[in-house]
Structure formats: C-alpha cells, structure tokens
Amino acid sequence: MARKIFEEIEEIPERDDDALDVLKRRLVVVSVIVMIFTALIIARLWYLQIDHGDDYKDLAFNNRVRIRQVAAPRGHILDRNGKEIVTNRPSFNVVLVREDSQNLEDVLKRLAGVLHEDTSELWKRIRDASGTAPHIPIVLKEDISWDTLAYLENHNQDFSGIRIAVVPVRIYHYGDLASHLIGYLGIINKKELAEADPEKYTGEDLIGKMGLEKLRENDLRGQKGSSSSEVNARGFEQKLLKNEEPTPGKEIRLTLDVDLQQVAESMMDQEDRAGAVVATEVNTGRVLVAASAPKIHLDDFTGGISTENWNALLANPKHPLINKVVQGQYPPGSTYKIVTALAALATGTVTESTIFNCPGHFQFGNRVYMCWRHSGHGAVDIRRAITESCDVYFYQAGIKMGVDTLADFARKLGLGQKTGIEMEHEKSGLIPTREWKLKQYKQKWQDGETVSVAIGQGYDLATPLQINMMTATVANGGKVFLPQIVEAVHESDGRSTDQFHPKLIRELTGMGKYMAIVREGLVGVVNGDRGTARAARIDGIAVAGKTGSAQVVKLAQYKGMKEEDIPYKYRDHAWFTCYAPADDPEIAVTVLVEHGLHGGSEAAPIAKAILMKYFETRLQAMAKEKEDRKNAKPAAPVTPGTAARP
Q: Residue 188 contacts by C-beta under 8 Å, 6 or more apart in sequence?
C-alpha cells in the first residue's frame, strides 16, 4: 500500500502541492498503523514465548504426559508386644479426570449402572469438587470389587475421563478392637483441603477423621510418590515414562496390650453392655486397656459410611460414637470414698481409730440420708468403712471437712481436670465447690449438698480414666503420671523417632501413712469376709479395690420393685476400680458398666478377668508349683547310722 502511494506521488505534477501533502499524511498514518500492528505482534510473541513460555510448554507437555501422584502406604499400628493391629491393603477407587472427559453426562449414566450407584450421587461428588483444577481426580466410588475393576479395565475406552486409582486402605486384624482409640479414615473434605498443605493433599486423599488416625496423621500418612505416563489425544495412557516410589508412613507402637484389650471388650460385649474399661501400669502411666462400649464398626467407614449406618449410630441409645474412656462423665459413686477417706485422714478430721456409729441412716437438718445397708453397720472405723462402703461414716466425715476440702484433695488425685492423654475431646469431669455453685447457679452452697458429694453423688462427675488414675496414684503412694498411649514411633527403615518415657505430673508428699491406711481398707473390699467386691478375688494374687453404684435418678418411685424390672435407663451405673498385687502394685483396672446396678456383681468380674489374663503366666507357675508339691513323693527314711545313697 505504501509503495502505491509513492508511485502516485511521482505521477503528481510538482505544482500540485496540496495533493502531495495529502498523500504524505496518508503515508504517515499507514506507517504508524504498520508499526502498531508490528509492535502488537512482537508483544504477543514476547508474552507467549518469553513471559509465559514455560506455562505453555507445561500445558503442551501435559497434553502428552500425565503425571500422577502415588499414595503412600500409611504407617502400621502395633500393640506393645509388636502385634499388628492395623496395616494396609490395596483399594481400587474410580476417579474422574474432567479435562480428559468427553460427553460426561452419557459416561456417568453408563458408569452409574456399573457401580450400582444413582447418577445423582455421582453428580453430587463432582459438584462437591467444584473450584478444583480440572486435572485433579474426583473420587466417584471407593474400594470397588474385583469384578467391577475387571469390567472397567476391559472397557476403559468406553469411559473417557474415568480412571482407576490404587490407594492403600486399612486392614483391622482384630476387627473393631480399640475402635474409639484407633479411629478411622475418610476422603478429605473441602474444609480440610483448604487448611491442608497443597503439596501434600489433593481432593482424592484419605485423611484421619477420628482417633489416632487423626491425631497422628503427620506420622502415619507418609510421603507420596509419582508416576509419569505418555498419553494419546484422548487421554489414555500409552507407556510409563518415570516412576518415583512413595515413602511409607511411620510405624506407631502403642502401650496397649491386645490380649488384655480383647478380654475387656469380650466381657463388655456380653449382654450388650455399655460403658468403659481402663487399665494402666501403676508406676509408669502406660495405658494397657482403653475400651469403650459399644464399639464402632471401623469397616463401615472404609470408603465412606452410608447414611443409613450413620443415622443408626446417632440413634443408638447407648451412644457408640462417644469414647466413654475420656468423654463419658458419670457420678463416681462410692469410688469417691477413696478421696473422702484420704482427705479425712490427712486433715485430722478422723484418725485410724475414730469410730462413727451407723444405724442405717444419718439425719442432717430435716432430711434423713440412708446407708445402702438399711440395717446399719454399727460401730465403724475408717478401714471397715472403706471395706464395707458404709455411707453413714463418709456422710459424717464429709460434713466435718466441707465441700472445698474434699474438692482440694479430689483435684490432687486428678479429678475435675483433664488428664492430658492423647485422645480426642477429653472431658474434665466436675468437682464442685462453693465458688463454683455461686458462679454457675448464683446460689450459695448448702451443707446438705456436701453429704451427697462425700459419697460421690450430687454434682460430682468423673471419667473412667480419671478414676483409674486416682486409683493408680493411691496404689503407688502418691505419684500422678501422665497416662500415655504411644510406646514408640519408628521410621519405615526401623529408626526410632520417638520413645515412651514416664512423665510425672506431680507427687503428693507427706501422705504416705494415710494412703497406707486407705490401701488396707481397699484390700478388705476384695479379700475381707464382708467386702463388697469378693467377686474379684484371685487365689495367689492380692487384689485391692473399691466398688461403687452411681445413682442416675432418684428411684423412690421404684421402691419395692425388682431391680430387673426397673427401666434400663433409670438403673444405677456400676463401678469397680482396683489394683494388684496389693503389696507391690503393677496394674490398675477400672470398669464402668452403664446402668449395671452393682459394682460388685457387674463390674468386678470384668476387672478380675483382665487381672487373670495379666497375671496368667504367674498364676500358671503358681499352679504348677502347687501341683508339684502335691505330687512330690516323701523322701525315704534313712536308718540311723547309715549313709543315704546319692
């Protein structure tokens, strides 16, 4: 165009100056336009090749090469003796890669029939993943069967954008053993994904949702690997280019003893009991048993729990979703008499020779408080009061001390506060004081309320773990240990990164002689002729303990009715807490059976079964020694003056 203008200029007579000026202006305009277009082209080329060259190079690369993350096997969970509680197996998940999908609506309709799912459910999963990058896989179905896997692999050309992701899922070698402690996994949700490290998690990942699976997520999850494959224009893989193996998660060894845990859970499963069982090492704080009943079925959560199963858990009146070891809060009942007895001795309110008369009732003000033995215990000292669980003795001791003194000693023994154990949502229980009631209810404390508190009723609340730690503290002479559930953490190559060490929280000093008196009473509970827990007695092993019945509601309306006819939800809770051997304590066991009525008949046999298992080798050796003595032939008499033959 510019050349044409120059030709026109040459043809114009020199005298036509005006025409020449017009053409020159045209030339300038055209030149500017050409320069602008040239600049735009150069700028665009700069933008594409210099500024964003790497980005477009990556896009081109990704059109040819598919890079996938490879899930790392989660770390194993073992018991204290190395028995495998949780390991892994491969699971095959159906995932959708949207950028590779063609005619998605048709694909999902056909896929729904193969997966036996509603199409609406598949669309829901896609909608839930809206806002994520199109190359990130969306999990449509977890843990498919072998038949489904084989069909999809053989017909993969018919399902564009649909892939099979192999991920490790958990194997529970002992079924639902310690289900509340172990916890379960689930697909990471939007909130969790937003808070997680994007380099570690994607929308298809499993993440700990409860228990140690959640609390120890960083240890258990491992480090992902990756694989690079060449794909064709339709996104189907042609060949593997590169593969980086994942790093397995760390192995966690628990303080838990599988054999003891099995005994505890099998006993609680009998008669469909609800409640909790805790056992710890008296001198270290290691948790040997942590059983909450009813259990939850961990396999129900593999691949995502169904709405039906979830609603059934929520509707269950025995509340299986609550970890009753640390979340169940119950009146401690007569187990609290350990606190009252120790406080009374330590403050000088009573001595070991102080006698209170128990006629079967105690009148305070215009109200009469009954003893559990309506005929009365007669003249009672502190040891007998503990052994026979005389309410009247502790009513009077409690009134003399007052609620604040009781609360002070209860807290020293670990009640009314969280223990600090590595479990979710631990409750602190409740130990009332005058100040607490004034703040909570804007009312003054009434001395009559102390009567109930002194025997573990009224406002008192405790978790089974707290009662167990209180028992262990009395057994070991005043040391309060942090209850711990993890023995060691090991890397996949076997190197130890964390090792258990007992942690002393505090020590009660100056109360040794008072604890000794209390312990004598606790020995009588199991071994005395009138002890309330004779069902826990073990020949050859001295057991010391305390029973308790925790009132749920006042049962005046059921007076005279047979206990089995009282509605389940109104029956008393049954407690038994103990330690053994009494003269050199090793283990403390606490059992709480919801609505079990009596600790001596309902809870004590469960504790005995655990102790029998714990001391199994020792008891077998004692039985063998006894049998050997029984079968030993008497030595032949030696005639005086003769030498016995060798």
A: 196, 201, 203, 205, 206, 207
Half-sphere exposure of 265 (CA within 13 A, CB side): 22
Cα 86 to Cα 490: distance, rounded to the nearest angstrom: 15
Tokens 């961990």 belong to residue: 298
Q: Check pLDDT > 60 for residue 25.
A: yes
Quickly list H helices, 546-599: none
| Alpha carbon distance 523, 543 (integer Å) | 6
- Tell me the pLDDT of the chain averaged across its residues: 87
Pairing mode of beta strands 361-364, 479-481: unpaired
180 vs 149: CA distance, rounded Å: 32
Percent of the chain's residues with pLDDT above 90: 56
Residue 305 main-chain phi, psi, to 5 deg: -75, 140
Token pair in block for residue 587: 């283990």
Instruction: Catalogue the active-site residues.
Output: 334
CA–centroid distance for 538 within its chain: 32
211: left (phi over 0), alpha (psi -120 to 50) or beta: left
Query: Rounded to whole angstroms, how far apart are CA atoms 337 and 398?
Result: 10
Q: Which secondary-structure segment (H or E) carries 141?
A: strand 138-141
Number of H helices, E strands in the chain: 22, 23
If you average pLDDT over residues 357-386, what whole number do you get? 94
Q: Are strands 77-78 and 251-254 parallel, antiparallel or unpaired?
A: parallel
Q: Cis peptide before 585, with omega less than 30 degrees from 0?
A: no
Q: In this model, does residue 447 exceed pLDDT 50?
A: yes
Q: Which two tokens stand for residue 483?
A: 């209850």
Which residue type occupies 79? D
Amino acid identity of residue 155, one-letter, is H
pLDDT in tens, 573-624: 999 999 999 999 999 999 999 998 888 899 999 999 999 999 999 999 998 8
Q: What pLDDT does residue 235 have?
A: 52
Range with the poorest average pLDDT among 149-163, 168-182, 427-441, 606-620: 149-163
Distance of CA 171 to the CA centre of its chain: 17
Name all contacts of 122-127 with Cβ < 8 Å and 24+ positions apart.
Answer: 126/96, 126/98
576/469 Cα distance (integer angstroms): 13
What are 195-199's contacts with CB under 8 Å, separation 24+? none
- pLDDT of residue 458 exceeding 60: yes
Average pLDDT estimate for 230-250: 69
Q: Which two tokens stand for residue 502?
A: 């007992």
Of 187, 95, 186, whose CA–CA distance to 140 is shortest?
95
Q: From CA 14, how far away is CA 42, in angstroms rounded? A: 39
- The predicted model scores a pTM of 0.82
For residue 271, give the amino acid letter.
E
Q: What are phi and psi of 93, to 5 degrees?
A: -105, 140
